[in-house]
Amino acid sequence: MKYLSQTLLDDLYNQTETAIEKTIGHWQQLPLHILKQSPGAGKWSAAQCLEHLNSYGRYYLPAIEKAFTASSLPPAIEFKSGILGNYFYKLMLTDSSGKIRKKMAAPKNHQPPANLDAAIVLGEFISQLEKTGQLLTAARQKNLGKVKVPISIAPYIKLKAGDVLLFFIAHIRRHMQQAERALKAAGSVTANAVPV
Amino acid sequence: MDQFQQLEKFISAVIPLDEAVLKQFIAPWTACSEKRKTILTRAGDTERYLYFVTEGIQRVYYFDEQGREATIVFTYPPSFGGVADSFLTQSPSRFFAETLTPSAFLKISFLQVDELMQQHREIEKFIRIATNYAFAGVLERLVEIQCFSAEEKFTALLKRSPHLLNLIPHKYIASYLGMDATNFSKLLGKIRL
User: Fold this and answer.
1) Are B192 and A194 in contact (CB < 8 Å)?
2) Residue B62 is inside which H or E element, if any?
3) Do residues B108 and B29 make contact, with C-beta atoms less than 8 angstroms apart?
4) Which DSSP helix (H) or strand (E) runs through A136?
5) Under an 8 A CB cutoff, do A31 and B170 touch?
6) Which helix (H) or strand (E) holds A123?
7) Chain A environment of B171 (Cβ under 8 Å)
8) Chain A CB contacts of B185 below 8 Å
9) How far apart (Å, rounded) are the C-alpha atoms in residues B66 and A50?
10) pLDDT above 90 covers what percent of chain B?
11) Closest residue by Cα to residue A168 from A124, A136, A195
């Protein structure tokens, strides 16, 4: 898959902005018990979905930043995704209704505990989204195909920074959609007004 | 109303200026916009601009090597922005200024303001009155910090700036109130009830 680098970064930045606006304008206003409510036996609460994302952000955001800082190669007009990178990206995608195409089990170290401080989890998630936006801005000066980032499951495998950004943000979208379904099941529609 | 008209209106509300002087004062300002979480001024750098905020929310904050952070002030339209003391004294800032949401400004350099102040006594007077307002605001906040409970501080902030709660991450509000995230969420839950 071939992309125009700046167009790709614009698209990813806009997706991140949309995610930030949703978490600040809506999720942050919800009572904490709604965020912590599981939609059914064995299913993740919204807070658990976000903690799962946080656990990846704690690895990938510093890893991407480190790779960017270490490289002074000029940006390229086009970015061509790698075979493995594109495969991971496709795995993360959901269909147009937000349904997951391929179900996967989270690795043990990325399985969120049930008992979470939802305010802390959401606060960290928003901070990570802010950081993601800053890295996407920094990415405009970087070569998305030549900068390489080691992946979390196998650090000896390095993928192109453009692919990592693509699947990292698709992964966020996937689990934010899952969190949205958990919140709907918990009745957030009637509880999002803030009486101030 | 465009950005320049907003600035004219803002200035005129502080002190009515002679039409010709107002036009001269407005002329050197230039428009700029910044994304979310963009640093406008770093600690150690001298503030070069006086900003007039026309869109978005920003903060001025303290941050040191020990990782201590304090949000000093939020700015949003219509108001001036940037690190005021560093701008006025043209000495290195002890604070950072950054955008918290996508923001738009008009800005003017210190040299331009300084020249205008030397040319027109009225403009110098305007800057003095604007500084007085800022000074009064700082003293009022000192009282809040020294005497108010966390809940009273939060109520005072909500009275001044009720929109902040829906537009910026709560960690910045917690930082302004001098609370950690957990205590802030408890306070928020209490105030909702």
Assistant:
1) yes
2) strand B58-63
3) yes
4) helix A118-139
5) no
6) helix A118-139
7) 123, 126-127
8) 32, 118-119
9) 29
10) 93
11) A136
